[in-house]
Amino acid sequence: MAYTRESAIARLIESYKSYYDIHMFHDGQIPVTARCDFFEHSQKYVLSKRAELWSADCEEFLYLLNIPHLTLDQYVKWRDYVHEDGMRLMHIGPGHMYSFITPVFICDICEEDARKALKKCRIYKSFHFSLHGWMDFHTAVVELSKGRIDANRSGHDTAKILKKVLYSKPTNRRES
Fold it and tell me: Does residue 173 fall inside a structural domain?
């Protein structure tokens, strides 16, 4: 299926809305169309929640960016913007296990130097010697003109999900 940037973003949002809190942006000054927030809290306790053995908080902030022609300068500018904004949103402290910050660039055309920079991107941070968890930066680009999806090493799973949502054929299941 051939997508426009808007239809691809709409399809992704439709897929993500059952797991993520979706925040839409309508500011024409920035290409961020939506931020999808995911939070998970796990804990183990004995008999009563006051006798907690451990707890872990995990979160992800996934940004959908609508950019017609992705250049290296644009990639660097919006990568840094998303990184700074995601760091501001994180809840670091005891019980924090990990946070993912994930910009997904939806474009018609991606220049090769921007794709190379995206694939080489490695941003990682541990907090308080990992006692308060860590942050990993996943990034991906969806180049609609070629039907191509690329990601950095940390974003490998993000790319698989994007391919499944955007390019896999729906299965027809019969109810028995």
Answer: no
Spell out a b/e string for 100-121, using b for 16 or more CB atoms within 10 Å of the CB, else e: bbbbbbbbbebbeebbebbbeb
Tell me if the pTM is above 0.85.
yes
What is the C-alpha separation between 82 and 38, in angstroms, rounded?
16
- How far are the Cα atoms of 32, 56, 113 from residue 48, in angstroms, in the given order? 43, 17, 55
E-assigned strand segments in the chain: 21-24, 32-46, 48-66, 69-70, 96-107, 109-110, 124-126, 134-137, 140-143, 148-151
148: CB partners within 8 A, 6+ apart: 110, 142
Q: Which residue has the tokens 């010697």?
A: 129
Say if CB 39 and CB 56 are below 8 A apart.
no
Look at residue 52 and tell me if it is in a domain: no
Beta bridge partners of 49: none
Q: Going by C-beta distance under 8 Å and a sequence separation of 6 or more, which residues neighbour residue 164?
A: none
| pLDDT tens-digit series, residues 99-142 | 999 999 999 999 999 999 999 999 999 887 777 889 999 999 99
The domain that contains 105 carries what CATH number? 3.40.1350
Q: Using alpha carbons, select from 28, 160, 29, 170 the residue that is nearest to residue 104.
A: 160
**Structural domain containing residue 26:** 5-42+61-121+137-150+157-167
Domain count, the chain: 1
